[in-house]
Amino acid sequence: MEAGTEKTSPELPLAERLLSGDKRALARGITLVENSDPAGWALVREIYPRTGKARMIGFTGPPGVGKSTLLGALTKHARSCDREVGVLSIDPSSPFTQGALLGDRIRLSDHFLDEGVYIRSMASRGALGGMAEAALQAALLMDASGKQDILLETVGVGQAEIDIIDHADTVVLVLMPGSGDSVQALKAGIMEIPDVIVVNKARHPLTDSMVREIKGVLALGPHMDWTVPVLRTEATVGTGIDEHYAHIEQAGTLEDRRRRNLMNEVLGLAAVRLRRELERSLAGDQDVQELLERVVKRELDPASAAELLLERRRGDR
Amino acid sequence: MEAGTEKTSPELPLAERLLSGDKRALARGITLVENSDPAGWALVREIYPRTGKARMIGFTGPPGVGKSTLLGALTKHARSCDREVGVLSIDPSSPFTQGALLGDRIRLSDHFLDEGVYIRSMASRGALGGMAEAALQAALLMDASGKQDILLETVGVGQAEIDIIDHADTVVLVLMPGSGDSVQALKAGIMEIPDVIVVNKARHPLTDSMVREIKGVLALGPHMDWTVPVLRTEATVGTGIDEHYAHIEQAGTLEDRRRRNLMNEVLGLAAVRLRRELERSLAGDQDVQELLERVVKRELDPASAAELLLERRRGDR
Asked: Does A274 contact B41 at a Cβ distance shorter than 8 Å?
């Protein structure tokens, strides 16, 4: 399948091959990052000075609204302008139905053999955290390998997915007629206002009223110097993104966004590592099990138990 | 407003007054917990042996589906059976529209003067975490003060809200015709299957097809020894909850659920404290700012910066 993707000799270091645009090196690098392999972190460290050039565009919205079809259209458009594209799908598969988005991903298969397009999905790994962090590392690898538009696709339900969107320069919310819950969440201020909104399946008879409803919700919000476009055809989405990008570049907010996102990434990574350290230090610890048993028996309250755990951990050093 | 609620002398210790069912003491206790006041943690520690008697019932679902009307009906039902009720609403107000659920809460006002009912809302405090933990502490205070049914209301969007539901014995998902996004999320396995589903606004012409769609989604899932009822009238929800409760008590899974929930609470509290410690140790630290500046300039990658932060923190001890 990947014959002909090997532009450089496999004897060269991974970072060098990745920087030269070798697809196989990029795939290998993302796998390392996904597995939390120390070699993955080392790779990102090495290529990091060569990142920051790509546009990071985040796509969110409920499942089934046609995000992947839209990504396919945007990929086609970018390729016609000779821009290289990376697509990163965060797949929140559960034990209930595994690989829910697989069908969606297949719609991107037109581009599987295109050297200028790299498509990858990562499975979200439960509530433990660390997914958002791994996804950004993967996006950095795509950036370093020469991808100019990086499309981050998530399903906007869990916090982990929302965190990934926090790493985007431009956030696109994808809806369709029937996405009443999302419109209610926007209206109630529970979902953050994105930069661009698309109502997919535009031929549906209820599209007009949905677009009107969304515009009404946006009109209630605070006045900003960017007017969120509510689009209804795939062809206009690329333009909407370009305009938002031009706006944030000109207003100087692109740099602010990136600074904030990078700081959140550093803090997020540190917090995830702390939590992993904690869980590792507790696993299989007989004393900890006894502590938890006392909580279950209502002898010791949860907060005191947490405090005792942290004290023990400090003492162990 | 609260005249006549003072059953015991205010000179008695707070814990004693709370345990005797004094509404004002309960209000004071929850405020302490909400403000992370050490006196709040001490109070929970003191009353914790007297908890574990109440039924914890969690309600989730998108905004605008009529959760609070349903809670009102369930409260009325419980009162007619002489059961005391605590209602805890997690209000995810944002800077965009503050107090989004206030209108809903007003529907519960029938019960404001009822001694056997205590209604409280807590605002969610951003992505920092700790909300789920504070909410459970508040629920424990309600339990100790003699509330027998504790109704935890959240909006099922962010992870923090979902974590709160993790503390419930029985989880009720509230939907309405138009909740297409939630049904898609259930179908895709992104939203966990609840114990009871209610489709509110049952007179809507699309209710029948929505109930059928949900039953179809549930039929695709794994076979479990509990069949999730899909209900459509407020009157049947109380029965659905009672039946689920009887089922988990009989099957012995109530105890398992509580054990798992308490363990998650302990780990969650420990993780939140670790993160707070980290953020406190970094705030206003000149060296940290310089570290972050190097990340922004692409001189130092985020993971290495996180590692340096953690090393510094260890060194500071």
From this structure: no
